[in-house]
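Summary for the funding panel

The consortium committed to producing paired sequence-structure records for every protein in the target list. Below we show the first two records in order, beginning with the earlier of the two.
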Amino acid sequence: MKILIWHVHGSWTTALVQGRHEFLLPLAPDRGPDGRGRAQTWDWPPNAVEVPVSDLGGAEFDVAILQRPGEIELLEQWTGRRPGMDIPAVYVEHNTPDGPAASTSHPLAGQTTVPIVHVTRFNRLMWDNGVAPVEIIEHGVIDPGYRYTGQRLAVAAVVNEPVRRWRVAGTDTLVELASQVPVEVFGMGMAPLAERAPDLAAVHENLRQDALHDQLGQCRAYFHPYRWTSLGLALIEAMAIGMPVLGWAATAAPDAVPASAGVLSTDPADLAAAARRWLHDPEEARQVGLAARAHALARFGLDRFLDDWDRLLKEVIR
């Protein structure tokens, strides 16, 4: 089938385009947020095809995958087709509510023609989904291979725009941990963080995915600092690399990380103690990382993810 989808979430889309279908990616002249086209820092297969926005009106596709409320209007504006009426569609919700979790209605809560697809059970619980049909398709990751060496005595974290997303991303807790053990941070928008957090051991910006995985695997452990998120794909990828993980016992992390794969807690002292222990005991860190990898591949494997999406899309376009 042919699937129209915007390039919004690079890691998630990288997994999806490994499927057996053709993916049409809107391309704007400036490659802005509404028309990024193909990824620049991930390697995507040739079945992910850029389509200039001006050509979308004449493009044939079987279903649209929406990920932001504004795409509903863009789809109709650019193609003349209304999602759920003129063209089958699903809406993927990557994020937790910005407002109060117990009372925030999802933008698609008042309709019944476009299913909301949550990427975690936690997401489904936190949003008020109203009368909309709801599905859950958990993340899937391409196996990056076992890359763990742990040779660098540092804890790694991946956070994009860490200063703008300061408390949501838990950047303040990352900086606190860096005052006790060496911490290296990877992601986009690192310059403000380097100025604000001089205790960090290193910051790394805009690495391609393969290089990022190699760099992460050289660090002794991985820290997932997020206070409020759905579930960071970087956490799952770190586990698949073979890294032992630390994180807050919040959001979907307790459901995704078993005790054998790392340490989750709401007490900063617990995480700092585990980090220090692994920095001094490479064998324990390695064993925990092996358990993390086994769990990530079993729970978040690519084949299961693609099979789940095939099933849903076939149901939607009937």
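The next record, for a separate protein in the list, is shown here:
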Amino acid sequence: MIFVMILIGGLTRLTHSGLSMTEWKPLTGWIPPLTDTAWLEIFQNYQATPEYQKLNVGMTVDEFKSIFWLEFIHRVWGRLIGLAVILPLGFFALKRWLDRSLAINFIALFILGGLQGVLGWYMVQSGLVDHPDVSPYRLTAHLGLALLVYGYALWLALNLLNLPHSEFPELNQRGGTIALLVLITVTILSGGFVAGNNAGLTYNTFPLMDGRLVPAGLFELSPVYVNFFENVTAVQFNHRMLAISTVIVVLLYWVCRRSYMTTARSRGILDGLALGVLFQAVLGISTLLLAVPLILAILHQATAIVVFSLAIWLIHNGKPRKRFGSAQA
């Protein structure tokens, strides 16, 4: 559900649907407009936003519905995830089927999910005043917290599966794999700044940018650090360099470490990670060259989460064999 939620969030960004709902009703926002009057009221709220006034002047109510529904599904799906955590958690707690460690972790997961909802609304607010777009900082923070929630849930799931392992865990491999995860995460977050600045719609060539390996104008903004987050040229260049670095580092790790891994599972996960980053690179280049078609763009985001997942799984497979968190039947 969280994986799907991340993809729905990507779709709302790519289709410019995220600012169609100008109010946040976390408890009462389950029901969409059901009458023409209700639709007109919501549309009038949207007409007061910078996005309508600067980009979508003349949009009809029917056209507005096409962007409203995706954002509505996005928000309702988030609420469903909350229910999918809290309702079974309450039931299992009443039955005393959870140990203290697991209960604490699931409560923490629920709280993080709630904070993600708050951060999502904070992000949307940045696009309802002055500028017809959300802040790239808030967008990337929203993406980063989504990765944290997803990674946390995946780690808990792997703990509960309690898969059989070799007697000799890959403890000597974990440091390198953690470094891979950090690099993969930073690369994904740099993609958040690409999306937040619409940088994928510029420099649609590869490997050159404006005919150069290192384009001009990387540091034209002041202060210098702002270029890394707001300068379209620098943002896209940084994402390219991080993506290329990720591919190279993962492949080198695969070449140097695979033969030393003691379990077939570790080798299989690492093989998947190597194939995943190669496929992701092809997707990224194709998405850029074709000026961000919707299908390729969302597939690029999905593959990024798959690569992120494989890195987490590889780390988990090398952890000490003591089970963390258990359910008592």
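Regarding this second record: DSSP finds eleven helices and no strands in the chain. Residues 1-161 form one domain.
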